[in-house]
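Handout, section B. The chain below has 367 residues.
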Amino acid sequence: MRRPSRIERPLTILLVRPRLIGDVLLTTPLVRALRERFPDARLLYLVESLAAPVVAANPCLDETIEIRHRRGWRRVLEDLALAVRLARRRIDVAIDLHGGPRSGWLTFATRAPKRVGYDVSGRQWMYTHLVPKPRGYAPRHSVRNQWDLLTPVDPAFDRAPEPAINRIEMPVTDAARASCAARLAAMGLPADARIVVLHVAAGNEFRRWPESSFAEVAAALVRGDRRRTVLAIGSSGEAESVGRVVGEARSSAGDAESRIVAAAGWPLAELRALMERAVLFVGGDSGPMHVAAASDIPIVAIFGPTMPVTWAPWRPEDLPLEVIEPGPLPCRPCDQRVCAPGDFRCLRQIDASQVIARAEALLERAS
């Protein structure tokens, strides 16, 4: 009697990139590349809750596994329970796109036959396939660095990614689009308002352009065109900073003050929808900048301690983009742990007039 032929289950691939918003967005070209190469595979993505909306609606993923940003013994207990769950998923390939201790250990805990990660001292044993990681600063974009992790999965990924072909993506859901429209209507914005999104806060002080500079930009932009409205955005925890910028900007905007509006604490999915509605984004190297880069909106990107060659918006070259950075500094780029001069001069060297001029140029092109 013949035995029934064994039914092969689909390949299961897990991507591990817990945080942060911008970093997770920069992995999305890899997600689509894997889906196109393995159309029948099950693609899973492990991510922290804060950044989960970036990939929650990604059509290339079968499942998003959310974890919390924990510390201490709570993280240990949660990660042990998660390790058991991952081991039961029968994962074939696990790719650590982060390279940190937690992501490395979770990748190891999958027990996947193929575990890919960076060749980082003390963590090599967690992986079956190691990818070299340059020591110190390397002038190469983050998307290209992460793309290297695909080569052990399949030699077809040997070609370099291109921004025009391998874009970052964060789909806009119908629910987010409707919620965004409702918020704007509640603010009293007319349908023809030219919305400028100004990201005026940053969780990392090393990337925080002075509030007074943002206020100067906001006031100048609303004075320049009566159809413009500036939405000053930030997280819910940055509401006070957003409020200070808006207050200072209004005090110098004259009769245009009502068109400078605080918009702190918007859900990430609605923020993404806002980028489709706005005519310009201005902000530093942060998560919202990369959210903007997922759309075709013109961008003015302000760089301080980080370098555009590594962290610039990853998008086609024909989309409007102005990158502003300080002059040469011996301390730049830095590891963003200690400001050697002590005055964050990389950011303070950038004058508001530079940003206003670049913003006006992009708005003129857009009109």
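Note. The mean pLDDT is 93. Compare this with the example in section A.
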